Amino acid sequence: MKKKVFSILIIALLLLVSCAKKDASQPSDEVRIGVAQDFDSLDPHHMTAAGTKEILFNVFEGLVKPTPEGEIVPAVASSVEKSEDGLTYTFTLRDGVRFHDGMDVSVNDVLYSFRRRMDGKDSAAKLASLSVIESIEANGNRIVIRLSRPSNEFLAAVMNVYIIPQNCTDIESYPVGTGPYMFKSRTFQHSLELVRFDEYWGKPGKTEKFVFRILESPDALVLALQSGAVDIVAHLSSDQTKQLDSDQFNILTGSMNLVQALYINNAEKPFDNVLVRKAMCHAVDRKAVIDLAFDGYGIILGTSMFPSFAKYYVDELTDYYEYNPQKAKDLLAQAGYPNGFSMTITVPSNYTPHVNAATVIAEMLREVGINASIQLVDWGTWLDQVYTKRNYQTTVTGVSSDNMTARKLLERFGTTTGNNFTNYSNKDYDRILAQALAEPDDAVQTQLYKALERNLTENAANVYIQDMADLVAVRKNVSGIVFYPLYVLDISTICREK
Amino acid sequence: MKKAGIIITAILFLLAIAGSIRTPYSHTAVSYDRLQGPSGSHLLGTDNFGRDILSRIMKGLGTTMTVALLTVATGALLGTLIGAVTGYYGGWVDRVLMRFNDAVTAFPTFLLALLIVSLVGPGSKYSVVIALSLVFIPGFARVMRTEYASLACRNFVISARLMGAGHLRIMFCYLLPNTMRVLLPALTIGFNNAVLAEAGLSFLGIGVSPPEASLGYMLSESQSLIVSAPWYVLSVGLTIILLVFGVGLIGEGSRADA
Fold first, then answer.
1. Alpha carbon distance A380, A387 (integer Å)
2. For A327-345, what is each residue's pLDDT tens digit?
3. Which residues pair with A262 in a beta bridge?
4. Would you call A384 an interface residue with chain B, using a CB distance cutoff of 8 Å?
5. Residues 156-185 of B with CB under 8 A from A
6. Which of A84, A479, B16, B251 is the least crowded, having the fewest Cβ atoms under 10 Å away?
7. What are the residue ranges of CATH 3.10.105.10 in chain A?
8. Under CATH, what is the fold of the domain A64-159?
9. What is the CATH T-level fold of the domain A258-467, as seen in this structure?
């Protein structure tokens, strides 16, 4: 008898659960997105994690903001004027821009936001790229900024000065911005909810509400997609996407916007010999690396720049070194290593894509007589030994640019640059780099940047591999994902078909 | 039962030895034949880099067995020494050493191994051996101490002492052979734990470095391919199970014999 009651109870419970699941089926005006990590801070001036910036891009705006085409357009400002000498920028405040709390944006809010990122009272909010600002003042509804020297990266820096209200006291708990979506609630380690801001100055968001579910394990993300708990997950591996039912999901391919390469410590023997580096470039079949370790997803690169920066990208460098093991052997012999040599590839163990790429690269190097072994280290050791102390031979990693300029990708190969972890040192490069950084004219600067890319390729600074693919799984009835040349997810265009 | 254990273990052992001499394919060679199911040319199929799984298992078995054997040997040797000294002498030596032993035991084993690997420097099978042997010492020490303590006051020990045998001689010539009843099963259980611990450490990515193979590392690689290449995870998992099972049977058998 007891058993019977028990089993009836169980059945009732099961029924209830299955009903509950049906009830929880999503309202048409809500889209759920799975993210792999919690948000480090909701204060737009404090956030540092790429995954946080990616999402809060929808909540906060600067005077200017990026477009999917890689341009910088006015946002909270309605227009930007640059003086002849490139030293004065005048931003005109857009009429009728409101904060999520309903207040109008005033010039004082703008000044407050800039000062918070500049004056260093709040050291976490200080933005080094704003150090070119000499003075900032308000003039009616205009903000006039004077620079100490011309800088083509200045607007990209302004993009990161998210405008927040001057009277806000606890922006971390109650984030208020001007973006198309506003903060509704947050549960630590679990979720974040954003809802549409109906008084947005620009094109309104298409969907009423977004829920970001934090699922820290890669398997949990896939399971959540399969079970219907989330509709979109970005940054998946090709293995993960293979587990998804292709009747239910579209897999979109964007790019990670980073330069994955076998980075070489140019100061270390035998890599100080340019012939050895050229041999390595000829020895690695980049297409095979992408096919074998990335299921064919990825864009082959030949220099420290990716195609989504179309303005700066030099296409003909991609195939500068064709795959040719015999040529590699000849070059090695010419360099004095007819029997090859041994080397180590140091890879951070938590980055599977880099470990996988290194696995294939090591095999290819072995074909031409270079006995490459892989050393896995944890992320902390990698940062300390490889990136900071430059105590390594070669490594596989990705280098990115978090603002929309070529500078970050190229400046790091200057002899005296602090983060030049490859120890690349080339007189021509340094000369052109100095010229490029001082150049006020954008077109001339672009040409100089291209010359830098050419220099890196011709001297085989590193074995450039690819811009890794960013795979996004999207439920079939959801559409509107737009890729940016930045690490952001624009939710304003995403909607569920009814 | 013991016979079955010996047969299973011997087959795996031969496979590992064969692997160290020659494998059907190079265990690191990548190819475009990716994620192929078992077939005539690849008996256990290929993995996501197009490497032959059988060749990798043969190599991996060698790595894993070496790690496990070295770990158990070191752990048992040092553990027996500590157990013998503390059990035989008793007194303050016993109290100090065993409290220290307790402290190490109280610390979660896996965390301790992780800590040691990151201190020694990850990415080599020898750092895994060092970490695991240190973790395995307390277990052996405790088992051996109990055995030594219970044997130390037996009549044959007293008579040996009366005949003028030294402490060392008594400990290792008279007492050690009598501890085999517990030492042998402890060795086989230790071996199995070491296999699983190596699998665990490599699974977390701090064991051997790719492209080398170890059973644990292969298991972690195959994890994301469960759906697309089930033969991969199955063949690696079954090998680990067989190894643990075979050695376990031997241990069971020798306990019954002793």
1. 10
2. 999 999 999 999 999 999 9
3. A396, A463
4. no
5. none
6. A84
7. 258-467
8. Dipeptide-binding Protein; domain 1 (3.90.76)
9. Dipeptide-binding Protein; domain 3 (3.10.105)
Domain assignment of residue B200, given as a range: 2-26+45-257
CA–CA distance, A113 with A125 (Å, rounded to integer): 10
In A297-356, the residues whose Cβ lies within 8 Å of chain B are 349-350, 355-356
pTM: 0.76
Query: How many folded domains does chain B comprise?
Result: 1
Q: How far is CA A253 from the centre of its chain?
A: 15
Q: Is A359 on the interface with B (CB under 8 A)?
A: yes
pLDDT reported for residue A7: 60
Report the C-alpha gap between B176 and B169 in whole angstroms: 10
**Confidence grade of residue A5 (pLDDT, cut at 50, 70, 90):** low
* DSSP one-letter string for B140-166: HHHHHHHHHHHHTTSHHHHHHHHTT--
CATH architecture of A2-58+179-255+470-496: 3-Layer(aba) Sandwich (3.40)
Q: Using CA atoms, how far apart are residues B136 and B146, in angstroms rounded to an integer? A: 17
Residue B34 is nearest to which of A243, A292, A377, comparing CB atoms?
A: A292
- Which residues between 209 and 248 in chain B have a beta carbon less than 8 angstroms from any beta carbon of chain A? 209-211, 224-225, 227-228
> Phi/psi at A96 (nearest 5 deg)?
75, 20
Residues of B in contact with A375 (CB under 8 A): 123, 209
> Residue A121 corresponds to which tokens in the numbers above?
């009272």
The confidence band for B89, taking pLDDT boundaries of 50, 70 and 90, is: confident
Residues A450-494 pLDDT 10s = 999 999 999 999 999 999 998 999 999 999 999 888 888 999 999
Find residues 67-96 of chain B whose CB sits inside 8 Å of chain A.
none
Give whole-number Cα distances, B132 to A396, B108, B192, B220, in Å.
29, 12, 12, 19
DSSP letter for each residue of B211-246: TS--HHHHHHHHHTTTTT-HHHHHHHHHHHHHHHHH
How much is the ipTM here?
0.74
Distance from CA of B12 to the nearest CA of A (A): 27
Nearest to B211 among A349, A362, A378 (CB): A362
The CA-to-CA distance between both ends of chain B, in Å, stands at 15
CB contact under 8 A, A292 and B210: no
Check A374 against B211: CB less than 8 A apart. Answer: yes
Find chain B residues with C-beta within 8 A of A218's C-beta: 224
Parallel, antiparallel, or unpaired for β A463-475 and A298-300?
antiparallel
For residue B207, what are the CA distances in angstroms to A99, A220, A245, A379?
A: 52, 25, 34, 15
Q: Which amino acid is at B103?
A: A
First to last CA, chain A: 49
| Domain harbouring B177, CATH code | 1.10.3720.10
Q: Name the nearest CA neighbour of A80 among A72, A89, A70, A88.
A: A89
Report if residue B126 sits inside a domain: yes
